[in-house]
Specification:
The structure is a homodimer. By secondary structure, chain A is an alpha+beta fold. Chain A has three domains: 60 residues, Arc Repressor Mutant, subunit A, CATH 1.10.10.10; 67 residues, Arc Repressor Mutant, subunit A (Orthogonal Bundle), CATH 1.10.10.10; 73 residues, SH3 type barrels, CATH 2.30.30.90. Chain A contains eight helices and eight strands, in the order αααββαααββαβββαβ. In chain A, the strands form two sheets. The first copy, chain A, has a six-stranded antiparallel sheet with strand order 3-8-4-5-6-7. In chain A, helix 1 crosses helix 4, helix 2 packs across helix 3 and helix 4 packs across helix 5. The termini of chain A are far apart. The relative contact order of chain A is 0.10. The structure holds manganese (II) ion (4 copies). The site of one manganese (II) ion has 5 residues of chain A, from helix 4. The structure holds a DNA duplex.
Chain lengths: 229, 229
DNA sequence: TAAAAAATTTAGTCTTGTCTAAAAATATTT
DNA sequence: AAATATTTTTAGACAAGACTAAATTTTTTA
């Protein structure tokens, strides 16, 4: 039975591995865990003893298969609980993360599978992040920053990069939600701000916002040319 | 913010105080917490420092008002989560206790009040135990052991004393549930076994079972005599 | 490639919560 | 009221998980 702390470290390493190819460095983990590098070293050694990570002195750590599975199950629990809070208890999406940080450590396979069924097997959490299945598999969604689209391209908002309360509340205020269809009307060359049309409403967003909105890769808008078959 | 351990000790003391009038002795707490007397002494001193119990060396501990409120809130959480598991996730009543032991330590007032509303403000948990309200008040139900009833008396099952898995499963097997009407048909003088009628079905239970079934205090069955008034 | 900077590990300390063994206080018997 | 038994506290140790400061290794810069 792993401690809360061990589970949190595994989760942090998992998230770091998603971004980079190499192993998670001591300092990166320390930053993510808001702790000191020396504490991280202690923990990496312990997780290595338990064969949950492969760790080489001064070289950082990589999750083992076993470690990856545990990390995915913690993430599964986190996201299912967030979904429960929003869908069943009417929490808003900026209120659920801290509570899910606690709930993700409750140990009971039956509980989490029942919860999954109760929620009717959601594929993504309230922030658009995919929920791993029982075996830890997660469909890695292909997505790009809205800021990479060209004028007239449109796509669907699948998730967001920044999940801070401030950003979540900004989106609520602008009535931007996961699943919305977003069309790029015009891009201002001077400051890269974007005129967008979201679910019919047209308005302006800054480049910073556009970089934190991740949308489906838009299907190529083929030039209307007659095919000669 | 209290630790899980501190909360568990407060809850244990609360339960002990319900049974006795005096303070909880070190040994009683040790038994309930399945720990050593010396560990209990350490914790009682700590809880006394935090003004959560009134503790006198060699005399045991009593909850302070503050301590009592915290204990009641932990019990409230425990029982609401048990209710959630049974009513919403279709757990059986013998499966929920261990999971509730974990869930009762989740810190979020909004969460527990939302859960309360989601469950439509239940008054009792799946085992018939009363759920304290937000302020820690709990309606102390008046109840007696079924074994104290006389022949022909009847009452309603409100809760059970023993909550072991074995007993809960015995009740399931016999289809005995909280809220059932139980009538004492006959008491066998030799072994005090009781012929009962429960929701129409008539069968025999042992004295031990009858001592663990707590029923409403039955209204006096007045002798049928004409009033001269 | 040697020096400087940055990252990482080690050594030692602290807190929380647990334990065992021994000492002290209280309760029960003779 | 002693003597004995039981309960409770104290003393000292340990493991987990964190920290600071110092030492070591790796990376970057000159
Ligand atoms: Mn989250
Ligand atoms: Mn999320
Ligand atoms: Mn319970
Ligand atoms: Mn219960």
């Amino acid at each position: 039975m792993l401690s809360f702390s061990e589970e949190n470290y595994l989760k942090a390493i998992y998230h770091i591995e998603q971004l980079q190819t190499e192993g998670a460095s001591t300092n990166t983990v320390a930053k993510k865990m808001q702790t000191k590098a020396s504490s991280v070293t202690d923990m990496l050694q312990k997780l290595a003893d338990k064969r949950l990570v492969v760790y080489k002195k001064y070289q950082g750590a990589l999750l083992s298969a076993k470690g990856k599975k545990i990390a995915a199950s913690v993430i599964r629990k986190h996201r299912l609980w967030e979904t429960f809070l929003v869908n069943k208890l009417n929490f808003s999406w900026d209120e659920v993360h801290d509570i899910a940080e606690q709930l993700e450590h409750i140990k009971s396979e039956k509980l989490i599978d029942s919860l999954d069924a109760f929620l009717e097997f959601p594929r993504v959490d309230p922030h658009g992040d995919p929920i791993p299945d029982k075996d830890g598999n997660m469909t890695k969604q292909k997505k790009v920053m809205l800021s990479t689209l060209k004028e007239n391209q449109q796509s669907k908002l699948v998730t967001i990069k920044d999940s801070s309360d401030n950003f979540l509340r900004y989106l609520d205020k602008k009535q931007i939600a996961i699943g919305n269809t977003i069309k790029v009307i015009a891009i201002e060359p001077f400051d890269k701000s974007i005129q967008v049309q979201i679910e019919g409403r047209e308005f302006m967003i800054t480049e910073e916002v556009a970089e934190n909105l991740l949308v489906e890769i838009p299907s190529l808008t083929l030039p209307k040319v007659k095919r000669t078959n």
